[in-house]
Amino acid sequence: MATTKPRLLLAEDELNLGDVLKSYLEMSDFDVVLARDGEAAYKEFQSGEFDLCIFDVMMPKKDGFELAKDVRNTDKDIPIVFLTAKNLQEDVLNGFKEGGDDYIVKPFNSEELVYRIQSILKRSQQIRKRSQQKEFEIGKFHFNYPLRILSLDGQEDKLSPKEAELLKMFAQHKNDVLPRSKALTEIWEEDNYFTARSM
Question: Alpha-carbon distance 35 to 28, whole Å?
Fold first, then answer.
């Protein structure tokens, strides 16, 4: 049975790099849609389904960070990889702040990029699978997410909606780091001093 190739949205305004990268990714068994600027990329994103986005940061009409914001407003889970010539720590941090899953500085090794993409896609698929899970075993505890019930040895506690959401996120990130900002933006819908205190 044929498997569907992962579909990537590549936004890169540098003509040669865009064409070379598209060809290399296609040879590496990805289906790639190439856009030459941020606005064109967002139109492609709205009209198709993608497994991962690769955005150059410095592009005409709409830069990679603005594009990522727009994409995140539509789909908060799709992985985003930033490509850029800017390697200052401030820029890297900004990339992650705007929802990037990885930040790759030009010039880069194409083979390394492929391995990074494969790794992110694998992690993304695992998270998607876990997000469909409704019940969790946490140590000796049993957690029923739809009913918001945490039970141990026949004793049950009903959690508040936010407690249930937070516990579900912890369960989905088992043996992994759960960034505080991710929990705040997904559950409280805002990452600031007051929501952090509430959490």
Answer: 19
Q: What is the pLDDT of residues 138-182, one digit of tens each?
A: 888 888 887 888 888 888 888 888 888 888 878 877 777 777 777
Burial class (CB in 10 A: 0-12, 13-18, 19+), 65: buried
| Residue type (1 letter), 75 | D
The pair of structure tokens assigned to 72 is: 């995140």
Residues 72-86 have pLDDT tens digits of 888 888 899 998 877
